[in-house]
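Worked example

This section walks through a single chain of length 368. The input is the sequence exactly as stored; nothing has been trimmed or padded.
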Amino acid sequence: MNSVIYAGLDVHKDSVSLGAITERGEILLEKRIANNYPKIRNELIHLRDAGEGGKLFCCYEAGPTGYGLAREINGSKIGRCQVVAPGKLPKKHGNRIKTDRRDALKLARLLALGDISVVAISDDTDESARELLRYRKIRKDAQKRTKQQLKALLLRHGKQYTGKGSWTKNYIKWVSGIDFGESFLGQVRNGLLHTIEDLGNELKDMEKRLEFMAQLPRYVCGMEKLRLFRGVGLLTGLAFLLEVGDFNRFATAKSFMAWIGLVPSENSSGETIRRGKITKAGNNYLRTLLIEASWHYAYGGKFKYPKTGADSQLGQEYLEYVRRADRRLLTKMYKISFVQKKSKNIAVTAIARELAGFMWGIMTGHIE
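Given that input, the structure is written out below as tokens.
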């Protein structure tokens, strides 16, 4: 008789704890093995065979080990492997004992119950492109920190710029010309300036690579759709394509908004309904980009509606959809800011939530 086997993998750098149960909940295997794919593969084959020709489902938590193991298992067709979002796993309060063996069995039981939140597994090309995009953010943050360190150095030693704007050519010329005498401050200043310049050149080079990436056949149609919206440019469009993956894995626009963490939190009981600030769950990077894009509805001025060229893959219905979305978001911004007289931050967050829904609509074809 064919049966289904559920396996949980607690994956670490050097080892993997494997726990497996039958569809009736009986423990079939508890074992710790080296983190070596051939050994993992052999164990999973033995498990599948123990099910007398049945199916094997396994999962492990997303973490620093990446998605390579899941791609290997799914590619070899031993069974179906899923990657689980660790922050969405249910926890038992009062449980003070945690071991790798227990974690593996817990994953297997939750998988059998269907009580897991699955992470999308990207292919090698998408993952490498996403790594480049994330690395660009790391270097941009490093440049920002270095600029702050240089400004802090000047402030500590009483050097204040009287001109307009920071990091203009005049500002950099002023910083470079400060005479610190025979102290070591000049060396520190020069080192920070060189670091800022090098990071700036590196960022320009990466942005050229990202522009080239956006023209690849697998991304060009999605980028054309997303960049129709006000405030969505190269980085925001690529980030959503690479971080979200398949937009169709979200059944509704509301589920996509909730995944980004832009829906209000709620703590209701009985007849009492309490809603608070947004949940801030999910991908913080995408949420930040969406908030930044939504500020264009507050201070962006007039928006020139895009036109599709002869080589465009989009029809007129997409442009009309974006025009309707833009009018609705502008109206909502005016209503919240001037009629309800709420703060700009609240208004922009509400706009970001609806913009996420419109982005889901255009990427899934729900543009009625």
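What to look for: The domain at 5-119 is CATH 3.30.420.10 (Nucleotidyltransferase; domain 5).
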